[in-house]
């Protein structure tokens, strides 16, 4: 009888939690989805270790948006851009429910760009959506939405008025395909600000090494232990060739996985890449934040 009551209360608590998530999610937008299921959000699906609580974030912020990213149910395989399963199926904890843009274009740094740009588009901060091509030329969505298109000849880029105004979601995705084609980890690393101390890490920060190829992974959630002050974080990545974005396992601490401790010793070791602790960077602050 007592056990049944406890189960009932636990179920009620879960239902109330999902109801609150659903209500909150109405203010967050993921326009590539036909329907958002709060039960499949990152926050609902990725449980916390005992003693930890999720870091407080401002409602509607980039950190809040990332925390509620939709995940595919259960733990499906990660697929390549051509629909085939990738060779390594042990690296991921979950698969983010988001499409790929442009065939093999949306690789590692492009996936980071995609998440940042999608958030800014969702809050209609169009002027903040801008990234640099590897050539150094700036690609602004507000200009693209006015009908300007890049004309690339060698290393030279000229923006020319070739279309009518259009800030629709399909136009936004077409803009991103241009960015993915001509930007990458090398250019993105130059745009971002170094985070000097890991203790200052925030959700939305990026471990990035610019190169040909380099790599980039994003911090998509954080939590802390109020008693000890310890902080933990989640990581998500795309890869080369283009694959579905996925939340990473922690290969160095399987008990804590998929969370990572901010107090990791030495380098940050992820399933497929190792970063120096100095390679954490941050996007410039947007008006919406």
Structural features:
disordered N terminus; 289 residues; 15 strands; alpha+beta; 7 helices; two-stranded antiparallel ribbon; nine-stranded antiparallel beta sheet
Provide a descriptive summary of the structure in words:
The protein is α+β, with helices and mostly antiparallel strands and 289 residues long. It is 26% helix and 20% strand. It has 7 helices and 15 strands. Strand 10 and strand 11 form a beta hairpin. Helix 4 packs antiparallel against helix 6 (169-182). The N and C termini lie far apart (49 Å). Residues 1-13 have low confidence and may be disordered.
Please specify the SSE layout and strand pairing.
Blueprint: H1 2-25, H2 42-45, E1 53-54, H3 62-67, E2 92-95, H4 108-122, E3 130-132, E4 138-140, H5 141-145, E5 148-153, E6 156-161, H6 169-182, H7 185-191, E7 193-194, E8 206-209, E9 215-224, E10 231-237, E11 246-248, E12 260-261, E13 268-269, E14 274-275, E15 280-282
Antiparallel strand pairs: 1-9, 2-11, 3-4, 5-6, 7-15, 8-9, 8-15, 9-10, 10-11, 10-12, 13-14
Helix pairs in contact: 4-6
């Amino acid at each position: 009888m007592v056990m049944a009551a406890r189960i009932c209360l636990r179920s009620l608590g879960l239902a109330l939690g999902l109801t609150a998530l659903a209500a909150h999610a109405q203010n967050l937008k993921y326009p590539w989805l036909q329907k958002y299921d709060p039960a499949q959000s990152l926050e609902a699906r990725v449980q916390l270790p005992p003693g930890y609580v999720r870091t407080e974030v401002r409602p509607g912020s980039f950190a809040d948006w990332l925390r509620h990213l939709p995940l595919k149910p259960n733990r499906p395989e990660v697929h390549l851009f051509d629909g085939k399963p990738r060779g390594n199926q042990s690296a991921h904890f979950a698969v983010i429910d988001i499409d790929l843009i442009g065939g093999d274009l949306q690789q590692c740094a492009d996936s980071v760009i995609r998440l940042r740009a999608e958030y800014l588009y969702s809050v209609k901060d169009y002027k903040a959506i801008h990234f640099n091509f590897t050539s150094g030329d700036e690609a602004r969505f507000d200009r693209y939405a006015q009908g300007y298109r890049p004309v690339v000849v060698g290393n030279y880029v000229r923006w020319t008025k070739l279309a009518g105004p259009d800030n629709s979601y399909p136009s936004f995705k077409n803009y991103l395909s241009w960015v993915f084609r001509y930007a990458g980890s090398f250019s993105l690393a130059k745009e971002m600000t170094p985070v000097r101390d890991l203790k200052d890490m925030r959700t939305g920060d990026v471990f990035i090494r610019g190169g040909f190829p380099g790599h980039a992974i994003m911090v998509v959630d954080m939590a802390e232990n109020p008693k000890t002050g310890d902080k933990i974080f989640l990581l998500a990545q795309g890869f080369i060739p283009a694959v579905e974005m996925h939340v990473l396992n922690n290969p160095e601490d399987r008990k804590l996985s998929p969370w990572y401790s901010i107090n990791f010793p030495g380098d940050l070791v992820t399933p497929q890449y190792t970063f120096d602790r100095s390679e954490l960077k941050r996007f410039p602050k947007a008006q919406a934040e």
